[in-house]
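User: Just a sanity check before I run the rest of the batch. Below are the structure tokens for the first item. I only need the designed sequence back.
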């Protein structure tokens, strides 16, 4: 059954999408609407594709897809996002037996085509649709998974599938692999489908078991800071890291790095080679940190959680040690633990993210801060006392060499059908 929307930005987003639908499709009425959230990962970075743990929460920011069925077997889609590559409107025939969809231009439409192609309740008939989103595109808050999951949720109303949620997330992941050429893990699609209001979600990416972790303490806030930079390395480095992890697991004779221990890594160090060893050391350490962090959050031990966030950042960090060294020497009232050794094992951060983390850790009331998402730009996530949130935003902006955008968000629900 449809739920009432509670996310503050959702009603205006839905209204804008409905208006655009009327204008684009000759006044046709919207009869179907779906929404899916973006996400922020609190800890557990680059662990999902290694069968490890992740601890994301769904955002109040999300993507709406509204539409109406057509009788002529064509699919027409318009995005209202100015950041999407041109053209913003596409039309193609609904897939039929023997003539499947394939990826092409514009790139943004590939996420939708992929979901249509891998939809489990098909064949998908013709429809018109408009997409509107308040997630920054390419900002590390998973606008791509939100688009896929919103599309899937829309299709579930157009031609229902069996309603299996895990299969839904997996189909959306497959769409991103095959139509957007991004070999992503399962985290983004999973949390966009399964998120629960007031909770982070510990996901075991090997078994796909989940544990809801309450995050409703009114004295606590989660601050997302967008660096507003994205280095072009993202596209090439992600598959490289993935390959290095697979190589490490194979050398150790394991199915994935989830099954490896630090002791085994040490023994195999020379066989792995130094770079692959360091990549694997990040993954094995991060999987352990994420399990500990979920426990700390459950126990409301925010200092421990914050310390683990900083360890995570250091392990993911770029070679920009200068900024972090400076922060490590500053007094950190939140006890954020910058005195940890800096390991730089995974090298997926960038100077901008390191700057934002270092600035956040200088603010009184901050428990911890780290880069979040794949890296090379995008966002940081900071856990802090709610009373420090405003001060932190001013301080971080003042210290940051670029222009930051801030989001203070509560854990939201996963994808849903919207009442019209
Ligand atoms: P992230 O998922 O972190 O936002 P990605 O690079 O994985 O970054 O996905 C961003 C891409 O997803 C965009 O460049 C665009 O192609 C597509 N996309 C996401 N949301 C929308 C939208 N509302 N309209 C059009 N394209 C979108
Ligand atoms: Mg993405």
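Assistant: Here's the designed sequence for the first item:
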């Amino acid at each position: 059954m449809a739920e009432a929307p509670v996310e503050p930005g959702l009603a205006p987003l839905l209204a804008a999408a409905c208006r655009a639908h009327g204008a684009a499709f000759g006044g046709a009425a919207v009869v179907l609407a779906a929404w899916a959230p973006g996400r922020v990962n609190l800890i557990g970075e680059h662990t999902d594709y290694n069968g490890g743990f992740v601890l994301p929460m769904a955002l109040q920011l999300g993507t709406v897809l509204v539409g109406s069925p057509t009788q002529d077997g064509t699919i027409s889609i318009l995005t209202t996002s100015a950041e999407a590559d041109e053209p913003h409107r596409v039309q193609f025939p609904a897939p039929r037996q023997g003539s499947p969809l394939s990826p092409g231009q514009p790139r943004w439409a590939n996420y939708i085509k992929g979901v249509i192609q891998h939809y489990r309740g098909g064949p998908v008939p013709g429809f018109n649709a408009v997409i509107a989103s308040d997630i920054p595109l390419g900002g590390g808050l998973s606008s791509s998974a939100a688009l896929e999951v919103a599309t899937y949720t829309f299709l579930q109303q157009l031609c229902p599938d069996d309603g299996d949620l895990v299969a839904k997330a997996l189909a959306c992941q497959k769409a991103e692999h095959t139509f957007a050429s991004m070999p992503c893990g399962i985290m983004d699609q999973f949390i966009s489908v399964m998120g629960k209001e007031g909770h982070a979600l510990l996901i075991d990416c090997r078994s796909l078991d989940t544990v809801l972790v309450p995050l409703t303490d009114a004295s606590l806030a989660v601050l997302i800071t967008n660096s507003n930079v994205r280095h072009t390395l993202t596209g090439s480095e992600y598959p490289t890291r993935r390959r290095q992890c697979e190589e490490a697991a194979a050398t150790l004779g394991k199915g994935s790095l989830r099954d490896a221990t630090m002791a085994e890594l040490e023994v195999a160090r020379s066989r792995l080679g130094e770079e692959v060893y360091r990549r694997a050391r990040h993954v094995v350490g991060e999987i352990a940190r994420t399990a500990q962090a979920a426990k700390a959050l459950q126990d409301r031990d925010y200092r421990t959680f914050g310390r683990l966030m900083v360890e995570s950042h250091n392990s993911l960090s770029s070679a920009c040690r200068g900024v972090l060294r400076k922060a490590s020497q500053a007094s950190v009232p939140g006890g954020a633990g910058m005195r940890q050794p800096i390991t730089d094992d995974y090298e997926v951060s960038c100077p901008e993210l390191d700057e934002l983390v270092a600035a956040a850790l200088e603010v009184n009331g901050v428990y911890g801060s780290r880069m979040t998402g794949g890296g090379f730009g995008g966002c940081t996530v900071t856990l802090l006392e709610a009373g420090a949130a405003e001060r932190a935003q001013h301080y971080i902006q003042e210290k940051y060499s670029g222009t930051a955008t801030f989001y203070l968000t509560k854990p939201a629900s996963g994808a849903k059908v919207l009442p019209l």
